């Protein structure tokens, strides 16, 4: 009887969000191995990994369910080309907000893929500091003329379609 109680106590003490050492992406020798390990984690463990790796200011974002960030988007931002993206943390926050709001994972992945191109297009059209200092008139010119985002934005058209 005492053994059964100890076993129950031990099971209750196991943190479901804890990342086992053999699955910790941070300990993987190569990026490909890290990606594979990340895919094997549960959503709660993936959220734990993201919280551990993100800046403290982002960790404090209120009411974000980090477990709702799609695996594909997280892999891009933590192990893929997104590592070099200057807007990496903003994209992660956007994915967290969209996931918390209940959007489908595929929709979030598309939103992240589209959003990452906007700063690049702004820099190409208006210069290096464009993403930080775009005036209202520049936004109007950006969305009205043909560019890398696919042309003018029409009333009722989705941002995702235009980008």
Give an overview of the whole structure.
The chain has 163 residues and is an all-alpha fold. 59% of the residues lie in helices and 0% in strands. The chain is built from eleven helices and no strands. It has helices at 2-13, 31-40, 43-53, 56-59, 71-78, 88-100, 105-115, 117-126, 130-133, 136-144, 159-162. The longest helix is centred in the middle third of the chain and has 13 residues, at 88-100. The protein is elongated, with a radius of gyration of 20 Å. The termini are far apart.
Structural class: mainly alpha
The helix fraction, in percent, is: 55-70%
Mean pLDDT: 76
Distance between the termini: 64 Å
Q: What is the H/E order?
A: HHHHHHHHHHH
Structural Rg: 20 Å
Q: Tally the structural domains.
A: 2
As residue ranges, the low-confidence spans are 10-14, 147-163
Count of distinct strands: 0
Q: Key features?
A:
163 residues, mainly alpha, 2 domains, 11 helices
Provide a concise account of the structure shown.
With 163 residues, the chain is mainly alpha-helical. 59% of the residues lie in helices and 0% in strands.
Topology:
Layout: H1 2-13, H2 31-40, H3 43-53, H4 56-59, H5 71-78, H6 88-100, H7 105-115, H8 117-126, H9 130-133, H10 136-144, H11 159-162
